[in-house]
Design a protein that fits this description.
The complex is a heterodimer of chains A (111) and B (118). Chain A is mainly β and 111 residues long. Chain A contains no helices and 13 strands. In chain A, a hairpin with a 6-residue loop joins β6 and β7. The model of chain A has no long low-confidence stretch (mean pLDDT 97). By secondary structure, chain B is mainly beta. The chains are: A mainly beta (111), B mainly beta (118). At the A-B interface, β6, β7 and β12 of A face β5, β9 and β10 of B.
Amino acid sequence: DIVMTQSPDSLAVSLGERATINCKSSQSVLYNNKNYLTWYQQKPGQPPKMLIYWASTRESGVPDRFSGSGSGTDFTLTISSLQAEDVAVYYCQQYYNTPPTFGGGTRVEIK
Amino acid sequence: EVQLVESGGGLIQPGGSLRLSCAASGFTVSSDYMSWIRQAPGKGLEWVSVIYSGGNTYYADSVKGRFTISRDNSQNTVYLQMNSLRAEDTAVYYCARVHYSLCGMDVWGQGTTVTVSS
């Protein structure tokens, strides 16, 4: 199975500042020029919400302050200007092969 | 509106069985890939199973041989039959649709809670 490792486990960022979350896969998730890497946001008591797929494509309706980058084994989710409603746990997930596997999550809080 | 609604969770003794249901609206489950994902209390996400549009099914090693995913096209519903339940199966179980990109899950239900305890 592909192991997904996120860092940091948690971070506190001031409102309006940038938040950066890293995700590393134990093997490349690149296939046919697409990285099979998805980012989710999960708020307390809610199911996860897809934010970014193919590593950098924003899902419909997701604010443009969320962006994804990276390729192969190293990926980043960036929130360019943190808003209060962005407080959540963020997960990366690979679907390069089965079983799809998730990172351990990164909790984002307001400083 | 595209929606998934899970049901069937509850408190069950170790060794018991439960069947979870996931009723879809706004799309056809037989045309998409449908997954179950679980989240133990205070923990992260763990993929459990998927059923492809062609009917192929796959399972996490942790549930293989104990859980069975299926669907009823006439009811537009996906099921997860869970047998030989263990304490470590305690979790919120989410049903989700696999996104057209085949990269992740874009529609999630609110989840149903399964508690395995004596």
